[in-house]
Every structure is written in C-alpha cells, then in structure tokens.
Sequence to fold (337 residues):
Amino acid sequence: MALSSTLRFAGRHGRMRPGRSADGQGGPMAITNFDQLLDEARRVGPKRIAIAGGDEHEVLLAAQEATTLGIAHCILVGNLEKMHQVAREHGISLYGMSMLDEPDSQKTIRRVLSLAREGEADVIMKGNVSTSALLHWVLNREIGLRTGRLLSHVGVFEVPGYDRFIFITDGGVNISPTVDQKLEIIQNALDVAHRLGIPEPKVALIAATELLSPHIPASLDALALAKMAEQGWIEGAVVDGPLALDTAVSPEAAAIAKARGPVAGHADILVVPDVDTGNMVAKVITFFVRGRMAGVVMGAKVPLVISSRADLHEVKLVSMALGVVLAANQGVRARSG
Fold:
C-alpha cells in the first residue's frame, strides 16, 4: 500500500497562463502544451541564451526560430568560421545573434559559463560540445555555476491523448540516485512544474509494482520518500508511491490495481528509479508514440538546456522556450555550496 501526502503551496512562482485549471475548480490555468509554452516564452522574453558550440545546423535552426519568435537573444560561442559555414550550407540567418569566436571546445564551455556567472546570460544551452564536459565545468568549484543543489534533468512531455504535460525525472544526469538525491530531484522537478502553473503537482514514485519488496529497491525508496513527504520534507506537491508506471498515469489501470491514492491514474511527475529507466521511457514516448519533449537540467545558477544529439530543432526550440520561462522567474533556491 502506498503512502501519500498532500502539502500546500503558497504560489511563489507568479501568475499562470491559459491551459487546464490547476486546481480543478476554475482557478488560474496551467501551461499544458508547447504552443502555450511558446506563448509564455514570448510574453516573458527575450532572454539571453548562451550556446556552447554553435556550429551544428539543428542548433542554429532552433536559434534562428527563437530569435524570430522573440523569445531569445542567442549568443553563439564556438568556431566562428564553422558557424558561418554551417549557416551558409543550410540557409540559416544569423541576424540578431551575437557571435564569439572560440575554436577550442573546452574554452568554449568555460566562456559560456563565464557569461552566465557574470550575469550576461540567463540560460545556457549545449550545442556541439560534450555533455559530460559541460556538466564537469558547471560543477567546477572555481568557475562553475554550483548552487549547493543537486543537478538533475527534468523532461517535459506532450503525450498524445493526455490533456497535460507529463514530467519525467531524472533521465539524464544521476545514474542511480540515493533517497537523499531523489529528494532533491523531486524538488528540481517541482520548481519546473510550479513555474508552469501547477501549484500542487501529483508526484508518482515509480517502481515495477505497488507492492513493497526487499528485492525491488525502488519500492523501498518510494516508501521512504512518501513518508518524508508526509512529514513535511516536500512542499507544494501530492506525493504517492510506490506506483507502477501504468497505475500512475492510467485511471483504468489504477482501478484494476485497486490503487486508491490521490496520485494513482493522474500523475503529473514521474520520479523514475534510475537514469536507464528515465532515458528509455523518454525514448519510448518520443519514438514510438510520437510524443514531443522539452528538457532542462536544474540545480545550477541558470537553467541548462541539454538536448540529445538526435533531437531536431523543434525539440531544441521548445527546450529553449522552457529555459526562458524558467529563467524569467528562477525556481532554483540557491544556497552556498
């Protein structure tokens, strides 16, 4: 049996935008799809997005569209000659963008971080550089963007047949997180959901089954986290677990499983056991059911837009929009670290 907790949220992230009613009673509306997200990004933008390694055509296409839509002022950092070459080959306009020449990829990353550290960039975006190298420098104690918070990836999914976003975390950074790390992963996801106008997201702690088993560590972690939520460790959320994936998102599956908690069948945020699970669920959604995804890494001083190598510019664009909306009212509650 899953433990659950309902904890109130005071609404620190500003007004909500059109979408479904966040409280189900005709209250302010949440952002529920990418069209609304782009509208919100236009409303609060443009924000300055520093792109590490701009010499990749899908990145440049996304930057061009973000510039045209007025959601971002893009600062391209990288090999200037290659950036111009890629733009010419693909008919991409660089009008309205700033460009900084830095042929070395490691120096490119450090220069981008310095822009954010000095208040000259609101969002960092990964272009044609290594993800591991970027995160390594972000966590550097001397020149990075540490806040004392754990870095974690939050995927925001527009899934066919659902009237709301589904959030999945962490499918990109933490390989096999501990209970304490999962607590911070949940908080990072809540920062995103709150900013998108969901005052009290339903958080499902995912395991293979709702039954507790010493042979399924994720079920024990879920029980511990649900109890911590009950004791006030997690604010602004309804937390329940362990829940199987189908039980978390399908009212029919929840009814069959006799899962009667407040999250079962209606989850907004899926907290997965490990990075393998999160990564595979994300790819199933995008490749098999043709869902759309935006992604951001939270926990640093600014949002980090880190897309997959295979992502087309449409995915990168909505991820940029997500970063812009988050930067407009930064959900990260920095502490010394």
